[in-house]
């Protein structure tokens, strides 16, 4: 199914590209709320909502990619390397997948450990130092996932 942004991308590719535009500031706001405002319960709710939303989105996205694919839509890109040049679309995809997979693993670990190790209602605990370190790493990784995803999207479906 064609997307809604006027590119060669599919509906889910457009949706995920826009979702990442929303995710990055929401993630930043969540980190700000916990770090500077000490809004632990709100941070927890936002993170669980983002994690659940991303899980559903990624599953739907992967189903569409398996059913419809993306390569046929990207063939018109000058960055596909069809004439023997470097296939920058695939290079950008592999870089994006590195960040996407590592951020998913980190987010799952951070959320799982937070649910197991923080009291309810949430507040600072012995687990806080680990959570701050790996939570920030996961947030940075998710930012890299978004940026590399947008680069892939542009190279494959806009250019």
Count of separate DSSP helical elements: 5
Biggest pleated sheet: none
Radius of gyration from the alpha-carbon trace, in angstroms = 18 Å
Average pLDDT works out at: 94
Number of domains: 1
Name the structural class.
mainly alpha
Beginning-to-end CA distance, first to last residue: 20 Å
Number of strands: 0
The level of helicity is over 70%
List the secondary-structure elements in sequence, H or E: HHHHH
What is the multimeric organization of the chains shown? single chain
Instruction: Estimate the strand proportion.
Output: under 5%
Q: Low-confidence segments, ≥5 residues, pLDDT <50?
A: none
| Apparent shape | elongated
Task: Describe the 3D structure.
The protein is mainly alpha-helical. It has one domain (11-158). Helices cover 75% and strands 0% of the residues. The chain has five helices and no strands. The two termini are 20 Å apart. The relative contact order is 0.16. The mean pLDDT is 94.
List its salient traits.
mainly alpha, about 75% helix, single chain, about 160 residues
Give a brief rundown of this model:
The protein has 159 residues and is mainly α. It has helices spanning 11-36, 40-68, 71-74, 88-117, 128-158.
């Amino acid at each position: 199914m064609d997307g809604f942004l006027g590119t060669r991308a599919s509906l889910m590719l457009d949706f995920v590209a826009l979702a990442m535009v929303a995710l990055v500031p929401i993630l930043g706001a969540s980190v700000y709320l916990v770090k500077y405002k000490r809004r632990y319960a709100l941070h927890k709710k936002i993170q669980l909502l983002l994690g659940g939303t991303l899980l559903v989105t990624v599953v739907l996205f992967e189903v569409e990619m398996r059913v419809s694919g993306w390569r046929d839509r990207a063939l018109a890109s000058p960055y596909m390397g069809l004439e023997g040049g470097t296939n920058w679309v695939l290079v950008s995809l592999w870089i994006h997948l590195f960040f996407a997979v590592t951020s998913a693993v980190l987010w799952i670990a951070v959320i799982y450990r937070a649910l197991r190790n923080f009291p309810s209602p949430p507040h600072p605990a012995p687990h806080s130092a680990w959570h701050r370190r790996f939570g920030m790493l996961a947030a940075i990784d998710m930012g890299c996932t978004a940026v590399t995803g947008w680069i892939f999207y542009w190279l494959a479906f806009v250019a």
